Amino acid sequence: MKEVRVRYAPSPTGHLHIGGARTALFNYLYAKHYNGKFIFRLEDTDLERNIPHGEASQLENLEWLGIIPDESPVNPGAYGPYRQTERLDLYRDYAKKLIELGYAYECYCTPEELAEARNQQEAAGKFSYRYNRKCLDLTTEQKAQYIAEGRKPAIRFKVDVDKTYTWHDIVRGEISVPGKDISDWVIIKSNGIATYNFAVVIDDALMKISHVFRGEEHISNTPKQIMIYEALNMELPAFGHLTLIVNEERKKLSKRDETIMQFISQYRDEGYLPEAMFNFFSLLGWSPEGEEEIFSKEEIITMFDEHRLSKSPSMFDRKKLFWIDNQYIQKEDLITISEMCTKYLEAELPINSKDEGWLTKIIALFRPQLNYCKEIISLVKPFFEPFNIKDEDLAFINELNGKELLIAIKDKFEKMDDFETEIIKSTIKETGKELSIKGKNLFMPIRIAVSNEHHGGDLPTVLELYGKEQVIANIEKTIKLL
RNA sequence: GGCCUGUUGGUGAAGCGGUCGAACACACAUGCCUUUCACGCAUGCAUACAUGGGUUCAAGUCCCAUACAGGUCACCA
Q1: What pLDDT, on a 0 to 100 scale, did the predictor assign at position A373?
Q2: Region(s) of chain A under CATH 1.10.8
Q3: Strands A154-157, A164-169: parallel, antiparallel or unpaired by DSSP?
Q4: How far out from the chain centre does Cα A262 lie?
């Protein structure tokens, strides 16, 4: 069997976003499943839209996710260069060849003329524009005349209107588009730079790309690309068009959408684990056989089957991401999680007043409920807030007849030397027994009095973390207000 | 508007003509556990195959139409 070579080819116009990451991921999975190569190529022919560090940023975020290219601009293989702007001459050579073969022709129309033609067609009630082929049969004299006027030609591909372009899409089955629906399109712009649809084909062919998985928006580009392969007598890759990702309102994910975080770097900043993201993305438009949903990267690679790629749009389900990331946070070793969480805490809270043991304990306490590491901040924050109990909570404590309990427990706490979880626990137990209070009635008043919160983790541990002094002070304040 | 797609419960998603009286997961609810919080476990949940026609002994599964949603129609990628 032919070597599997797939690629992810972003344009460096922004950072890696969700859609790109997912496309890259499926290409990567396919490559690794079939022991092939995953290639990273830069499509940077639109000079104006390129942003500085776009390439590095794409690569970095990809690698963070665990998607490591076998060949890339910074780690070239035998098929370089891997940036389109470094391959410009190549495209020109092939374009020239297409002209010689009669598949393409020079077009001297100016943008103004084209706009004019388009307006006319629109005025005539046509929605889709077709180039009028004004330059199709230019004589050498006419060309010379245009050049004398200072015009620079673009090169257009001459579409065979009698042909139908058909391919078997790996995810969608057979798709065909008649040539008559496609206008003669530009392959080389008048500035001498190849257009995307032309450059991809040359690159994919020369880089021996065997399979192309990309977004659904490329379906309509595919016939154009097929024309080039056929004209140049190059071997066609197999195509597979992935579904779009939609947001929780079922709308296509546009880069401006603010309902969900768009960029991988944002997830990284919020402390999601890369393995969890990898797992989550693999489930966006694909499903494994069987009933499990949590898998390691290696397991996903082994199980990956392109025939199980979905045809209908996949929704970015934030809650599911929470759940998956939470699962990975439990699996990851505590030290790693501690380090990540500590980083967030240091940035937001005055935790240097606490020792390392305190930190480890509090992180271990909250780990089971963490959806992503940055969440630790809101969980730990109450420990640093000044005492501030709400009236309704005071009323609630009264309702539970908590005053007597608080007085008793404060007294016991004061007498304790070693303010430690196990002892605190037995003290609470003992007090409960003496006053015959149990369950919620026993724990809630203490919790609210000390932390002013209804939630927060195992109470004895929480109390230890507050420390004896603070606990007693807060209970005292509460009693006074009751 | 042309062309190209898609449409299964609140959400993701299985399902490739009979085993579908439709899995599984998330969410939600209830119960158990821990005298609290959370985790975990168990159970339940929803009157889900867009609509209408075919084809067939048999259709979520094939065909056609309609509706809705999306993609695309550039000297952007």
Answers
A1: 94
A2: 333-377
A3: unpaired
A4: 6
Q: What is the pLDDT of residue A70?
A: 97
Measured distance CA(A301)–CA(A63) in Å, rounded? 16
Q: In the CATH scheme, what is the code of domain A87-205?
A: 3.90.800.10
Predicted confidence (pLDDT) per residue in A395-445, tens digit = 888 888 788 899 999 999 988 888 889 999 999 988 888 888 888 888 999
Mean pLDDT computed over A228-233: 94
DSSP state of A40: E
Estimate in Å the CA A428 to C1' B58 gap, whole number: 68
Backbone conformation region of residue A443, classed left if phi is above 0, alpha if psi is from -120 to 50, else beta = alpha
* Structural class in CATH, domain A333-377: mainly alpha
- State the Cα–Cα distance between residues A278 and A96, nearest whole angstrom: 43
Looking at chain A, the domain(s) classified CATH 1.10.10.350 span 385-481
A183 in contact with nucleic chain B (CB within 7 A)? yes
CA distance A277 to A113: 49
ipTM: 0.89
Which residues of chain A does CATH 3.40.50.620 include?
Answer: 1-71+243-332
Spanning CA of A297 to C1' of B23, the rounded length in angstroms is 25
The distance (Å) linking the CA of A335 with the C1' of B6 is 46
- Chain B footprint positions (protein CB, under 7 Å): 1-8, 10-16, 23-27, 35-40, 69-77
Asked if pLDDT for residue A189 goes beyond 90, the answer is yes
pLDDT tens for A66-86 read: 999 999 999 999 998 999 999
Q: What's the average model confidence in pLDDT over A256-266? A: 79
Average pLDDT, chain A: 90
pLDDT band at A239 (very low <50, low <70, confident <90, very high): very high
Any idea what DSSP says for residue A112?
Answer: H
Give chain A's largest Cα–Cα span. Answer: 110
Percent of chain A clearing pLDDT 90 (strictly above): 57
Structure-token match 């199709």, residue found: A136
CATH topology of domain A1-71+243-332: Rossmann fold (3.40.50)
Q: Which of A7-16, A196-205, A382-391 has the largest mean confidence? A: A196-205
The model carries a pTM of: 0.91
Which nucleotide has the least CA–C1' distance to A125?
B1
| Whether pLDDT at A482 is above 90 | no
Q: Which fold has domain A385-481?
A: Arc Repressor Mutant, subunit A (1.10.10)
Residue (of A281, A317, A310, A467) closest to A384 by Cα position: A467
**Are the CB atoms for A42 and A249 separated by under 8 Å?**
no
Alpha helical stretches, state H, A11-103: 18-33, 54-65, 88-100
Q: Which nucleotide is nearest to A176 (CA to C1')?
A: B4
Question: Given the DSSP bridges, would you call strands A104-107 and A37-40 parallel, antiparallel or unpaired?
Answer: unpaired
